[in-house]
Write a structure and sequence with these properties.
The protein is of the alpha+beta class. It folds into five domains: 175 residues, Rossmann fold; 85 residues, Elongation Factor Tu (Ef-tu), domain 3 (Beta Barrel), CATH 2.40.30.10; 72 residues, Elongation Factor G (Translational Gtpase), domain 3 (Alpha-Beta Plaits, 2-Layer Sandwich), CATH 3.30.70; 110 residues, Alpha-Beta Plaits; 112 residues, Alpha-Beta Plaits. It contains 14 helices and 33 strands. It has an eight-stranded antiparallel β-sheet. It has a six-stranded mixed β-sheet with strand order 2-3-1-4-5-6, with helices on both faces. Strands 21, 22, 23, 24, 25 and 26 form a six-stranded antiparallel β-sheet that branches. A hairpin with a 3-residue loop joins strand 18 and strand 19. Helix 7 packs across helix 8. The longest helix is centred in the last third of the chain and has 18 residues. It is globular, with a radius of gyration of 27 Å. The protein starts with a strand and ends in a 7-residue tail after the last helix. The structure holds guanosine-5'-triphosphate. Guanosine-5'-triphosphate binds next to helix 1. The site of guanosine-5'-triphosphate has 19 residues, from helix 1.
């Protein structure tokens, strides 16, 4: 154990986590020339395109110094708030963390939130000032910022460039000298933390773990404490770019186990693996069942594809345990599924995967958070509302609670005013304002989660000209005044367009929704009235005027190829339309509430 170092890299997005990880792999010759490719740790296509490490992985490196060989386990952490529970479990598997700060951008919201997670787990922090090669780098000032934040000495901060390789050797030394070797008792019953799992369609679920006590052996009968299920450890091993099967993984080390589990839901991140016959009495603390935060309906564009969509969702769930869904039906869209996601990014990922991997064309309805409704029935029992149509009748409704978050925003002093106005507009209450430096301010707000779901990131970027970073964590439910706003097209209520809104915003948003829908719904042979209503009360109205001329008429009958192109374009546009009554509604319309303004 003396020669093992378990660590992770924590950083704000784009500060250079993946690039630095690559340099460490180079320096330790973990990856052969042939295997080398950019962004090694991000091996999902989608991840690479988005530049975000969505799923965490682990990689083992060997590093020799003065004849002594060390084993480094680098545990990758996802870089997005949607996955913060996974980050916390990865951190719990380590003794140390490299805290990367971009020398041009300095400390950002995620730097701080990840740092807090690391400090809660008593990790040794090695601050790394990355990108010092950039002409825009501010090494002196940013080092001051880091020293202020950590209370460390200036000499503790390692100047580095993951691009040029500067500082990499110093980082390797620091990993050995500053990060403690793992403690733990190899003689005690097996106690290992599950920090990640990956679905493999051929081999079943691969579970990544860190052994705290005891050891795990090939063929051992193991038990997962939270799920209380027993399996045989068919294969265990360590992870490099590929898996290396082993006979035993001992206390302090990191590895994977394959047990033939075929459903990702059976392996829960944060769970404890122990010996089935001689179980540990102390499970690793901090286990939580992750709960979806955002809900939306997913419907096939073509009603006939419902069964195929169900199949695809089931397969997706096998490898993404955080996706939940159940069948629902909508008068407007027919049969589909109400799905729960960790956040908006997760929703987008699922939608994209359905289309890319399963070739489905789907319509996603207006996302919402999950509310608790209390009716006047005794005894008072909360009803969980994750679909607008589940909200009880207003006459029977006592009160509604909605989820709140603590938001942390770091921005430049000059944008404090506009960021505050935005947060107040989003029903936020300021709880704290701290000047991190003369020019950098951290603002804390309590805000309804629902307001983050709708266009918050985009608005924040706009009002701060891109100089704001943002992070949040849930702080529980609070009473709120909610109403259901319905949309009627041609006098037909379209349930899939209903939204739950705070009463103070309902009129304004209702009006904007009508305007937006007017823009998005194609003109047809007749006038289409668009109305927003709360109960029987109409609160806004617009009209899509009837079409007068053939769309191809403006081609003057001349250029036939152009005419064909136009028709083709129309046909393509149709793919994502749904006819509700006699009105054609494009997909964008269902998401319209997200992009008002
Ligand atoms: P996510 O995985 O998206 O969270 O980002 P990350 O933190 O892993 O950042 P990544 O390694 O992808 O780097 C972001 C960008 O910064 C990339 O374009 C890198 O090439 C660049 N970059 C990383 N390190 C350095 C550095 O030391 N100097 C310079 N000039 N660019 C760097």
């Amino acid at each position: 154990m003396k020669h093992i170092r378990n660590f992770c890299i924590i950083a704000h997005i784009d500060h250079g986590k993946s690039t630095l990880a690559d340099r460490l792999l180079d320096a330790t010759q973990t990856v052969t020339e042939r295997e080398k490719q950019e962004q090694l740790l991000d091996n999902m296509d989608l991840e690479r395109e988005r530049g975000i490490t969505i799923k965490s992985h682990a990689i083992q490196m060997y590093h020799k110094r003065n004849g002594e060989e060390f084993t480094f386990n680098l545990i990758d952490t996802p870089g997005h708030v949607d996955f913060s529970y996974e980050v916390s479990r990865s951190i719990a598997a380590c003794e140390g963390a490299l805290l990367i700060v971009d020398a041009a951008q300095s400390i950002q919201a995620q730097t701080i939130s990840n740092l807090y997670l690391a400090l809660e787990n008593d990790l040794e922090i090695i601050p790394v000032l990355n990108k010092v090669d950039l002409p825009s780098a501010n090494p002196e000032e940013v080092t001051d910022d880091i020293v202020d934040l950590l209370g460390c000495d200036r000499e503790d901060v390692i100047p580095a460039s993951a691009k040029t390789g500067l500082g990499i050797d110093t980082i390797l030394d620091a990993i050995i000298d500053r990060i403690p070797s793992p403690k733990g008792n190899p003689e005690e019953p097996l106690r290992a933390l599950v920090f990640d799992s990956v679905y493999n369609p051929f081999r079943g679920v691969e579970t990544y773990f860190r052994v705290f006590d005891g050891s795990i052996k090939k063929g051992q009968k193991i038990k997962f404490v939270a799920t209380n299920k027993t399996y045989s450890a068919d294969e265990i091993g360590t992870l490099k770019l590929v898996q290396f099967p082993q006979k035993e993984i001992k206390a302090g080390d990191v590895g994977y186990v394959i047990t033939g589990i075929k459903d990702a839901r059976e392996v829960k991140v944060g769970d404890t693996i122990t010996d089935a016959e001689n179980p540990t009495t102390k499970a690793v603390a901090g286990f939580e069942d992750v709960k979806p935060m955002v809900f939306a309906g997913i419907y096939p564009v073509d009603t006939e594809d419902y069964e195929e969509l169900r199949n695809s969702m089931e397969k997706l769930q096998l490898n993404d345990a955080s996706l939940v869904f159940q069948p629902e039906s909508s008068a407007a869209l027919g049969f589909g599924f109400r799905c729960g996601f960790l956040g908006m990014l997760h929703l987008e990922i699922i939608q994209e995967r359905l289309e890319r991997e399963f070739d489905m064309t789907v319509i996603t309805t207006v996302p919402n958070v999950s509310y608790l409704a209390y009716t006047n029935k005794e005894p008072e029992t909360p009803i969980s509302v994750s679909n607008p149509s589940d909200l009880p009748e207003p006459s029977t409704l006592n009160r509604v609670e909605e989820p709140y978050i603590k938001a942390s925003i770091i921005t430049k002093a000059e944008f404090v005013g506009s960021v505050m106005s935005l947060c107040i507009e989003k029903r936020g209450e300021i709880t704290n304002q701290t000047y991190l430096t003369q020019d950098r301010v951290e603002l804390s707000f309590d805000m309804p989660l629902a307001e983050i779901v709708f266009d918050f990131y985009d608005r924040l970027k706009t009002v701060s000209k891109g100089y704001a970073s943002f992070d949040y964590s849930p702080i529980g439910m609070r009473t709120s005044k909610l109403v259901k706003v319905d949309v009627l097209l041609n006098a037909n209520k379209v349930d899939a367009l209903s939204a739950l809104l705070h009463v103070d915003n309902a009129y304004d948003i209702g009006k904007k929704m009508c305007l937006k829908l007017k823009e998005l719904i194609p003109r047809q042979q007749f006038d289409i009235p668009i109305q927003a209503a709360i109960g029987a009360k109409i609160i806004a109205r617009e009209t899509v005027k009837a079409l007068r001329k053939d769309v191809t008429a403006k081609c003057y009958g001349g250029d036939i190829s152009r005419k064909r192109k136009l028709l083709e374009k129309q046909k393509k546009g149709k793919k994502r339309m749904r006819a509700v009554g006699n009105v054609e509604i494009p997909q964008e319309a269902f998401m319209a509430v997200l992009k008002l303004n």
